[in-house]
Task: structure prediction
Amino acid sequence: MSPRTRILDAAMTVFRRQGFRRSSIEQAAEAAGLTRQALYHHFKSKEALFRAVIERLHENALAAEIAAAEAAEMAGGSLADVIVAAVTAKLGTLADSLDGSPHVEELFSEHLVQARDLYQKSAAAYGEQIATTIARVCRKQGLALNGGMTPRDLARCVEMAINGTKSAYPAMQPADAFLRDLEIMLRTLIAGATSPAKPRTAGPKPAKRPARKSAKKSSGKSTKKPARQNQRDRK
Result:
């Protein structure tokens, strides 16, 4: 384990136990088995250490989202199955990292204060990944998005569904109830946004040209001379 990884693991434990405001560099250094000076060699302040913890947390959540989407797709899941699996894995990773902490709401609040730029960056990465997944699954499963919607549009709707559910569950707690209600909302959203793609119809067939006649029609008049006239001509 690298010194940086050991520091981040220790810092996560301290932040969960003490919250952001009551924690200190000294506590993180002690938990990592380092001196304060050694920790300052890697991070110049408690705020910088907190940002590094948050950044790693978002990276882990994105990796969990990608892996869950691929697994659900390989298992033959529907688009709703794939998106629910991806979102649940991402949010579950975030929730599990703070599970049991008495400072969950404070940490989420400080996360937006100390690392808003990281939050915005990760949100953009999550949205791009969901849009890519939607486009790929729709193509493979022969689905069309209704109303002229694009994969990016549907990904934005997924993000709005997540934010809407978060408003009912501060800090995503209790996690089980939050994820259950979010799944219902996501499945309802995707059911209304997709339909089987219509098969492409072939263009109109060219009109058949009338067949050319191999011989001209006869005039109907006989050119054969009568027998008596033939006899007179021989005479």
Remarks:
- Confidence is low (pLDDT under 50) at residues 217-222.
- The radius of gyration is 36 Å.
- The beta strands are 143-145, 194-196.
